[in-house]
UniProtKB/TrEMBL annotation:
This is Sodium:alanine symporter. GO terms for molecular function: amino acid:sodium symporter activity. The lineage of its organism: Bacteria, Pseudomonadati, Pseudomonadota, Alphaproteobacteria, Hyphomonadales. Its main location: membrane. It comes from Hyphomonas chukchiensis. It is found in: Cell inner membrane; Cell membrane. Belongs to the alanine or glycine:cation symporter (AGCS) (TC 2.A.25) family. One of its GO terms (cellular component) is plasma membrane. It comes from the Bacteria.
Length: 485
């Protein structure tokens, strides 16, 4: 079974999927005339605009973005970046950036379609996401594809959003503070229940407070480490750019194996972190109080910028400037193909322990607390955000009556994910295998969504063109009005 899942994971995150993810993002970027780059200042301005009283929706646009970010800013920003660097080398960071840049257009398109094709359920909630824009945008013959996405969404949410996050939090708290996993399991499940049983309004309210506070706190700690090692920053960027194109650390030339390793791990970790193209974030953006799809799409694309280009980059620079990643831990041309085959680093720290070592090297006695608290809060907000995604997918498949049973199942899975650390042997091995299954399901979710994005892209392009044409016309009319005497 383990070999089968490893093979499936390699297929899902292989060249075809990476090409589809990057290709779709690049196609949308060009089709939108690089709007996702040129309109960033306008996007930040729109983020803090108050909703009109006539706007329909369940949460503010800011709340929708924070809910989306609550699920993306998580263990991937701390442990995932470290794993990408340890396994794929510093060059993986460059491909994470490239994934984020083209991913802004993907996130924008997801946000536009989420609001354009959302529905109101029997209880008055605004529901949407890939399953709805597949059904309502692509027609009845494609309903099965929406069902595939929703099914994968439920399964991935239990894995990526509930069990893996609670397991990571319990592990971090046990390693740093000696808190037994069963205590963490109880605290996390009770905390999750208190929030998710209140629905999207309570999730958005908590996320709107926790996400900005923790993200800014983590960034402050990371920037302090980078400032203390400022002389190593140029070398760190040099490692990133050389590794991105397969240059061996010894300077002996280009290795195709190193190039593919950096690209695969960078793109995979980038997508796992910011979820651009995966189709989860538009489920949150569909609930926004925003009557204009383009308005929400512009806000949605900020998620990728904040998550990958800012938070993940800080983690990467902390690791690369701290000096904890020695030359003996870097992949080489000789080892690249073996690492690609089995997905393991060369016997060195990876994941959260590497990030802890990097922070502690510059901030002794403090760094481990930054990482442990960061993992706890980021992981908890991810539990909240993914609970909403899984709930909407479950509702799409089984109707409104399935919502409460799903919420209860979520709380149970959160408890079991943390409590699993109490066991050794086969149970622990099963947890590690579950990580791989969740990673595989995350990749599989992207396929139906990417098909929908390409098919419905003409609608996105037209809505965008009409929106900015109307804005330009309104501005010209305002400038033509003579000032009042």
């Amino acid at each position: 079974m383990e070999n089968l899942i490893h093979s499936l994971n390699g297929l899902v995150w292989g060249i075809p999927m990476l090409t589809l993810l990057l290709g779709t993002g690049l196609y949308l970027t060009i089709g939108l005339r690089f709007l996702s780059v040129t309109r960033l200042p306008y996007a930040f301005k729109q983020l803090f605009k108050k909703p009109d009283s006539n706007d329909e929706g369940d949460v503010t646009p800011f709340g929708a973005l924070m809910t989306a970010l609550s699920s993306t800013i998580g263990t991937g920003n701390i442990a995932g970046v470290a794993a990408a660097i340890a396994i794929g080398g510093p060059g993986a960071v460059f491909w994470m950036w490239m994934t984020a840049i083209v991913g802004t257009a993907t996130k924008y398109s997801e946000g536009v379609l989420a609001v354009k094709f959302r529905e109101i359920d029997a209880e008055g909630r605004h529901v949407g996401g890939p399953m709805y824009y597949i059904k309502n945008g692509m027609g009845s013959k494609w309903i099965w594809l929406g069902g595939v996405f929703a099914t994968l969404g439920v399964l991935a949410s239990w894995g990526t959003g509930a069990s893996i996050q609670s397991n990571s939090i319990a592990d971090a708290l046990n390693a740093t503070y000696g808190i037994t996993p069963i205590v963490s399991a109880v605290a996390l499940s009770v905390g999750a229940a208190a929030v998710i049983l209140g629905g999207i309004q309570r999730i958005a309210s908590v996320a709107s407070k926790l996400v900005p506070f923790m993200a800014l706190s983590y960034l402050a700690g990371g920037l302090l480490v980078v400032a203390l090692n400022i002389e190593a920053v140029p070398a760190a960027f040099g490692q990133i750019f050389r590794g991105a194109f397969g240059f061996d650390s010894a300077g002996t030339g280009i290795s195709i194996g190193l190039l593919m390793l950096a690209m695969q791990k960078g793109v995979a970790r980038g997508i796992f972190s910011n979820e651009a193209g995966q189709g989860s974030a538009p489920i949150a953006h569909a609930a926004a109080k925003n009557h204009d799809p383009v308005d929400q799409g512009i806000i949605a694309m900020l998620g990728t910028i904040i998550d990958t280009l800012i938070v993940c980059s800080i983690t990467a620079l902390v690791i690369l400037t701290s000096g904890v990643l020695g030359a003996d831990c870097m992949p080489t041309a000789a080892t690249a193909h073996d690492i690609l085959a089995n997905g393991q680093a060369a016997g060195c720290d990876t994941g959260a322990p590497l990030t802890v070592s990097a922070f502690d090297a510059s901030l002794p006695g403090i760094g481990q607390h930054i990482v442990a608290i960061g993992l706890t809060v980021f992981g908890f907000t991810t539990i909240l955000g993914w609970s909403y995604y899984g709930e909407r997918c479950c509702e799409y498949l089984f109707g409104e009556k399935s919502i409460l049973p799903f919420r209860i199942s979520w709380i149970v899975v959160v408890f079991l994910g943390a409590a699993a650390l109490m066991f050794e042997g086969e149970i622990k091995n099963l947890v590690n295998l579950f990580w791989l299954v969740a990673d595989t399901l995350t990749g599989m979710m992207a396929a139906p969504n990417l098909v929908a994005l390409v098919v419905l892209s003409p609608i996105v392009f037209k809505l965008t063109k009409d929106y900015f044409a109307a804005k330009k016309k309104a501005a010209e009319e305002d400038s033509a009005i003579p000032p009042a005497e």
